[in-house]
Design a protein that fits this description.
Layout (H helix, E strand, L loop, with lengths): L2 H6 L9 E5 L8 H9 L3 E4 L3 H17 L6 E5 L11 H4 L3 E4 L2 H4 L5 H5 L6 H11 L6 H11 L11 H14 L5 H13 L8 H4 L3 H20 L23 H12 L6 E2 L20 E2 L2 H17 L9 H20 L6 H22 L17 H10 L6 E6 L4 H14 L4 E8 L6 H10 L16 H10 L10 E7 L5 H7 L6 E6 L1 H7 L4 H14 L2 H11 L3 E5 L5 E5 L11 E2 L3 E4 L2 H10 L4 E2 L10 E4 L4 E2 L6 E4 L5 H4 E8 L1
Parallel strand pairs: 1-3, 1-4, 2-3, 5-6, 7-10, 7-11, 9-10, 12-17
Antiparallel strand pairs: 8-19, 11-19, 12-18, 13-14, 14-16, 15-16
Helix pairs in contact: 8-10, 9-13, 14-15, 15-18, 18-23, 19-20, 22-23
Length: about 675
């Protein structure tokens, strides 16, 4: 029972060389759907910008048609059927036209409610529809149907705090998003039943980080009640007093709490301040995961726990992209913990796990990466979708202003190091951590330009060897009629990160400004001079952050009422040299982790010297932009030499932070 089959039956190869599809609800962008259509031999091109489309069509597909190639081309318009008539005349002549919509898949459910769901949830909804055969449902009835059968929430079964807490732990730990309209309905149902009146439902149900903060606040009080006798409570424990009492001792809840402490979503509290000894823990030993006794011992225990947890949770090759984004958060925390003090007891275990993660991620990327770049931009899945996400924020109010700060080369683990320093310097700041995928190859001229262009690299082919056009790409995006800003409302600056560069930003922040793009390249400079590996990167990023430039930079933007978003164009890894290709001038780019060629024969010649190198397909890239990626954690440099580099396929290079900053 699969909703995709209803659409896939229309995609029979060689029925028509050109098919126009009206897809207003983005059904064809769902990862598995897209993969299955492509597996049938169809090539999909999205018509969003007439000029960009014409370039791709004329350069890549028109020549094939003229040569009589067997081509199954699908042109997708994310609008209603009537909008197809606005396409160029030569396309409208195509006799085959299709249209797909949520209404045809779920005719008895409220369109607006179903449309709020992530398309990955349609599987469960389609099966529930087939099994329960609902009659025509209104908006509230549809919400309740979805809550029950998609999210496994039956309000009638929620009677006590542990019932609610388990539901929220399941969502938030997995990083699942409940659409706002479903959050509101769920909260209203609980309020109508007069349940949990003392809990801040409006925040803990809808906001993942607020939920974790709520648990963090409640944990010390739980510990105090279970382990500390009233006569032992010192004056210091007043810091931990809270009226919130949560059933952490529930057997099912304890499993989640253990993972939350291991993965750093919750922070252990100081056992000495509460005068807790190991004797206190004899009847409740599981509580130890949330207590700090001896930093070295605690680190050892947490490292061991994380290694075991991640070893059993590596996403499979058919996983959703959200699974790898979620995994990358815990993986980054393990990397930071490991490099703080490489404990010899776990050296072999860490390297074995690293190999498993690399292999699993490579299989997934090989299978699913090509389905990512046409995903909807809210939330963004890839870097080039960020500007469209920001545009929606600006549309919400004419007084909104946004600053996009790109920390060039900052890996997710290095962001965790930077964030720790920023929180120590500015404890009033709040960071909402998300992650997105960079572009392959993971190099600045591809991935960073994609951010500022707001589109895939195949739509700015002339500048892929330089970053000189970033400013014009950024301004072109925002002054396009779709966004409607004027030149005076848009700014861009790069080369930031040194002590004297704050003044440069100040000069850019005119009163009329509504959106600014800023490149901080200090981390990239640190990386390219790094000889001490990942641990050296952490140390240098920490030292740079402690100088205060970044904190002052954020202060400036916040004082000017900008909503700040931080991201990175790519991460980096420690790599070992496997030798330099003997290629003369035939490579268009000679990076440590990637070589770029304009001819497949030339690329194949170099690959023959390095049989394990990866001939990456030009997914979202110009047709003649052909990367050859170094395999595993290796680099095209002197054999045996160690380096910190980027350009290839690894979790650390390809999954980058996307952070919103507020006070």
């Amino acid at each position: 029972m699969n909703w995709r089959n209803q659409i896939l039956k229309e995609f029979t190869p060689q029925v028509a060389t050109l098919t126009l599809v009206a897809d207003p609800d983005g059904l064809l962008t769902e990862a598995e759907m897209l993969q299955r259509i492509q597996a049938r031999g169809f090539e999909i091109v999205h018509f969003e910008d007439a000029i960009a489309f014409r370039y791709i069509y004329e350069s890549q597909y028109r020549p094939q048609q003229q040569q009589g190639a067997a081509l199954d081309l699908v042109i997708v318009v994310n609008k209603d059927t009537q909008e197809l008539r606005l396409l160029p005349y030569d396309l409208i002549q195509a006799r085959r036209q299709l249209a797909f919509s949520i209404g045809s898949l779920f005719p008895n459910l409220s369109y607006s409610v179903v449309n709020s769901l992530d398309r990955s949830n349609f599987d469960a909804l389609y099966q529930a529809q087939a099994q329960h055969k609902p009659e025509q449902l209104g908006e509230n009835a549809t919400k309740e149907f979805i809550l029950r059968y998609v999210y496994n929430i039956d309000p009638d079964l929620i009677q006590q705090t542990s019932d609610l807490l388990l539901i929220l732990l399941r969502w938030h730990y997995r990083g699942q998003r409940l659409p706002e309209i479903l959050c509101d309905r769920f909260i209203q149902t609980l309020r109508d039943r007069q349940l949990f009146s003392t809990l801040p439902l409006e925040t803990i149900i809808c906001d993942r980080q607020a939920f974790f903060a709520f648990l963090q606040q409640a944990w010390p009080e739980f510990v105090r009640q279970h382990l500390v006798k009233s006569s032992q409570v010192s004056e210091a424990t007043g810091t931990y007093t809270t009226s919130t009492k949560l059933p952490f001792e529930n057997q099912d809840i304890r499993v989640y709490i253990n993972h939350l402490f291991l993965e750093g979503y919750l922070q252990p509290i100081n056992a000495d301040e509460l005068k807790i000894t190991t004797t206190n823990l004899e009847s409740n030993p599981w509580i130890k995961v949330g207590l700090c006794f001896d930093p070295k011992v605690d680190q050892h225990r947490r490292l061991q726990g994380l290694l075991e947890s991640l070893d059993s949770s590596i996403p499979p090759s058919d996983a959703k992209h959200q699974d790898w984004l979620k995994f990358s958060e815990a993986w980054a925390k393990l990397i930071v913990l490991w490099h703080q003090d490489k404990i010899s007891d776990f050296h072999g275990q860490f390297l074995t796990l690293q190999g498993k993660v690399d292999a699993g991620f490579f299989r997934w990327v090989s299978s699913r990466y090509g389905t990512l770049y046409n995903q909807p931009p809210s939330p963004p899945v890839m870097l080039h979708q960020i500007p469209r996400f920001l545009a929606r924020y600006l549309e919400a109010s004419k007084t909104n202003k946004v600053a996009l700060v790109v920390l060039d080369g900052l890996a997710l683990d290095q962001w965790l190091v930077l964030k720790d320093v920023l929180l120590a310097q500015r404890p009033q700041l709040s960071f909402r951590d998300e992650t997105v995928f960079a572009w392959l190859p993971t190099i600045t001229s591809v991935s960073r330009q994609a951010i500022f262009a707001g589109k895939p690299p195949n739509l700015f082919p002339s500048s892929l060897e330089t970053t000189a056009k970033e400013e014009s790409l950024w301004k072109n995006f925002w002054t396009d009629p779709a966004q409607g800003l004027n030149q005076a409302e848009v700014a861009y600056a790069k080369g930031l990160g040194e002590a004297d560069s704050v003044s440069l930003v100040e000069q850019k922040l005119s009163p009329k400004l509504r959106v600014v793009g800023l490149v901080v390249d200090k981390v990239d400079k640190i990386m390219h001079g790094m000889q001490l590996g990942t641990a050296g990167m952490h140390n240098q990023v920490r030292q740079w952050a402690e100088l205060g430039w970044m904190a002052n930079f954020l202060d400036l933007l916040l004082a000017q009422k900008f909503k700040i978003f931080l991201t990175s164009d790519h991460g980096n890894i420690e790599a070992t040299g496997i030798g330099q290709p003997r290629e003369g001038a035939i490579a268009d780019l000679r990076g440590e982790r990637v070589r770029i060629y304009s001819d497949s024969i030339l690329r194949a010649k170099v690959k023959s010297e390095f049989p394990n190198a990866i001939e990456w397909q030009p997914l979202g890239l110009p047709e003649k932009y052909l990367p050859l990626l170094a395999p595993d954690r290796q680099a095209f440099i002197q054999e045996g030499k160690q380096i910190v580099a980027h350009g290839g396929i690894s979790v650390e290079e390809l999954v980058v932070p996307f952070i919103s900053v507020s006070v």
